[in-house]
Amino acid sequence: MQQPEGGKSDEANDGDHKTTLPSTCAGQTQQPLTHLETLGANLKASLRRNIEVIAAVTSQKEIVCPLTLTQESLEQIDNELDAERLSLQREEIVKLRNGSGGNVEANHVFSHALMRAIERDEQQDLQQDQADLPHQKTNVSEKRGKVVGIIGSAGAGKTTLIHQWMKRINNNELFNPTSYVFFIPIDEIKMQDKITLLQFLTSHLLSEWTCSPEEEKQLIEILLKDDDVLIIIDGLDDAGYKSFSSSPSPISIFDTANPKAFVENLLSGNLLPLARKMITFRPGLLHKIPDSLRPPFLVQVQGLNKSSQESLGRKLYKKRYGGYKEILSQNPNLLSYCHIPYNFKLVLKYLKFPQTKQQCNITMTQILTSTLLYMLNSANYASQKDFKLSDVLNWAWRSVKERKSFIKTKDLHKMKLHASTLQKFLNSNKDNLEILCVGENTCHFSSIVWQEFFASLYLMIILSVRDFKSQMQFFSSENLSGVTCFLFGLCHEATLSKLLSVFPKAPAKDPSKKIILLEGLALSVIKERSNSSLLRVCKWICESNTPSLQNSVRNSLPSKINLSKVQLLPWELHNLVYLLQTETTQQLQVLDLSGNDIGDKGSTLLSHCLPGVQELKLNRCGIGRNGARDMSGGISALKSPMKKLSISGNTIGDIGTSFIAECLHCIEDLELVDCGVEVNGTQELTAKILELPVPLKRLDLSWNHLTDTGATVLASCVHKIRKLEVASCGFTSVGRNVIKRRLRSLNLQIFRVVFEKSASELTSSEEDDSDI
After folding, report:
1. For residue 664, with 0-12 CB atoms within 10 Å meaning exposed, 13-18 middle and 19 or more buried, which class applies?
2. Are 65 and 311 in contact (CB under 8 A)?
3. Which residue in 676, 736, 725 sits closest to 697, CA to CA?
């Protein structure tokens, strides 16, 4: 038997196959270990050293930040690419941004799995009578309850998470106690080979582990009885399986078989039923796994929340990250990609270049284009004379249409590709942000954004106009939203020109495709009049960064846009403002963003598109006094008055109210319900109202603490307000009478005051019996 490095040879024990370990207490020695115990101890130590090496060689930049985990069922996902986009869906990003995405703690995943397995078995109509065989039902649940699935899209951080956990396991901080910890990266295993179970489990040991057949059987028997064993299979989709058997043929722990048989029997619990198993894979594989093998508990790696992005950015670039973060805040459209660690690092790498500080609207298309051109200009790429990038683009488009995320390495030749020529994309830059991952069994893109970007390149550069038009039916699909977005990004003339230089045989630039995208897609989607379609088009136009498209779509918008309570994300607001800030003679009658937590930054952003809006509703949007200041500045610059501004439910206080007072000459109707306005704010408003050349049509100050002092202040300007609403403002009969007497003394019968409203009428203009 050949021992791994650091182990002791059996021959050193005087032929009796026993080793005496160092004493643990003074004057005492441990009992001599048998040969089998020594063998197990050496294997355990070798596995531990293997984990230490993996944790050490894994860059600390990779494992600095926590990844957000959440429980997922994914029962409705039926194809690879839809499942791959799961963590990119808007609802998931909203949860992640709000800090509510994570609901799973690492130490509890196996207890959750057992509970879920028991629940699932209770719901199933088992063929045998479980009343007569209760022990069988328990055994099935216990075996299946030992398996946990870790899912996440490419680049989300599944392997990084496993490396984090392995480090904690070695420090006895996680899944304690653990005896044997096997880490098996599938992409390094030849799936056609016939091997033993122990060879499969130890395939990733850095030092070769060999032992006699008899010793191997003895070790396997130890593992069979040990419930502290942990088996981690990383990247199951890298095996390239088309399907799994719902009833895998049972194999013995001593059999020789291919790795697939071991995987299926480990998942079903037929092999090593006491051992805990953890399997990582992308969501696309889930629909291929039958219920009998599907892990009862799935944990989705959603990626980085805001605090984790901050941690990773600081670790990668230290103090320089502050500058990159500022650029990101000015380009929130990029943040829609940054919860995926791979994408976040890709964006930060681009922001290192000095010229990005002068760019006013950086798009993901520009970042991917720049990264691709950098790789194509490398010496590594130049050495590959037989490589045709167009073949990779073709593969990308076909895989997107077929909703596949992988291709078997052995099938590359069908796509006119070869594994050796694809290797240029690996390790072609010091930041390890390769485009493709070429493994022993499968080949896939490092991130879905590359797959979608390459598909868009094929459509925009390689495909003829006629064929491009024939594919229009696919572009409006939600499943191809990423590809469509990059198609609009490629409408940017400078970006497309750079890419055409790589394809000398490609057709010359033709504006026809841009026109097809505009008329056949953007304008038709706008006509759907739904919030989701509007937000999609806004994203496309922002990605295009093309004024002609921007103007055309802006002039086709509906007159009223209601996006209230849709949990608008920062980049969605950015995209909307980008579209609305176009100079146009066609104004929006109403823009309602109430109930979205846009904050001061959102208010500042909106101040740039006010010339195109007649009525703006920003109720309960988390705006403070700074947001009120910037909003006031934007309104004051208007050439014609805004018909209505409603910012009720925002705590702007007296200071914010004083800012709003500065722009009253550009507002006809103002709602400041429940804004924290007190006497000082009332005085500021009154002073500006008195300066108005014409009366204010309406002012609603309901639910502010004005008191009778505020009533006295307002009484001095009631002749400049056609309708004043002051319900629940802390007025007594004294304050009300001051206002009433003032109105009567001026004989202003057409001017009205509302003193009382119900809570449901806070922002309405309904009057009650207390009006005068």
Report:
1. buried
2. yes
3. 725
Please name every residue paired with 645 in a beta bridge, in sequence order, or none if there are none: 616, 670
DSSP string for 45-95 = HHHHHHHHHHHHHS-TTTSSSPPEEEE---TT--SHHHHHTGGGSHHHHHH
* Cα–Cα dist 26/17, whole Å: 26
Residue-wise over 375-399: b if at least 16 C-beta within 10 A, else e?
bbeeebeeebeebebbbbbbbbbeb
Distance CA 701, CA 23 (A): 82
**Which pair of tokens denotes residue 308?**
């984790």
Q: What is the pTM of this model?
A: 0.76
- How far apart CA 640 and CA 636 sit, in angstroms, is 10
Which residues, at least 6 apart from 635, have a Cβ–Cβ distance to it below 8 Å?
A: 607, 610, 642, 645, 663, 666, 667
Q: What's at 393, amino acid-wise?
A: L
Report the pLDDT value the prediction gives residue 432, as an integer from 0 to 100.
Answer: 58
Beta-carbon contacts of residue 197 (< 8 Å; ≥ 6 apart): 220, 253, 254, 255, 262, 271
Rounded alpha-carbon distances, angstroms, from residue 403 to 444, 448, 451: 13, 11, 11
**Dihedral angle computed from the Cα positions of residues 728, 732, 733 and 739, in that order, rounded to the nearest 10 degrees:** -70
Which residues, other chains included, contact 169 with Cβ-Cβ below 8 Å and sequence gap of 6+? 51, 175, 176, 178, 181, 230
Q: pLDDT tens digits for 131-171?
A: 444 444 447 778 888 999 888 877 788 888 888 888 888 88
| Main-chain phi, psi angles of 742, to 5 degrees | -65, -45
Tokens of 429: 């830059």
User: Which contiguous run of DSSP H or E holds residue 367?
Assistant: helix 364-376
Per the DSSP assignment, residues forming a β-bridge with 195 are: 257
Phi, psi torsion values for 153, nearest 5 degrees:
-65, 165
Question: Which tokens is 767 given?
Answer: 């009057």
* Upstream peptide bond of 22 is cis (omega within 30 degrees of 0): no
Measured distance CA(262)–CA(616) in Å, rounded: 63
Return all residues near 341 (Cβ < 8 A) that are at least 6 apart.
62, 67, 155, 156, 157, 160, 303, 304, 312
CA distances from residue 659 to 317, 383, 665, 724 in whole angstroms, order as listed = 39, 63, 12, 20
What are the beta bridge partners of residue 613? 588
User: Per-residue pLDDT tens for 644-688?
Assistant: 999 999 999 999 999 999 999 999 999 999 999 999 999 999 999
Determine the Cα–Cα distance for residues 33 and 25; give it in Å rounded to an integer.
17
* Cα–Cα distance for residue pair 435/48, rounded to 1 Å: 32
Output DSSP code: residue 371.
H
Residue pLDDT, tens place only, 4-37: 333 333 333 333 333 333 333 444 455 566 777 8
CB distance 365 to 490 below 8 Å: yes
Neighbouring-strand partners of residue 615? 644
Q: Say if strands 195-196 and 256-257 run parallel, antiparallel, or are unpaired.
A: antiparallel
| Residues 6+ away with beta carbon under 8 Å from 302 | 67, 68, 69, 70, 87, 92, 95, 96, 101, 102, 152, 156, 339
The side-by-side arrangement of strands in the sheet containing 669-671 is 560-562, 590-592, 615-617, 644-646, 669-671, 698-700, 723-725, 752-754
Q: Tell which residue, 156, 193, 179, 579, has the closest CA to residue 339.
A: 156
Local structure of residue 294 (DSSP, 8 states): S
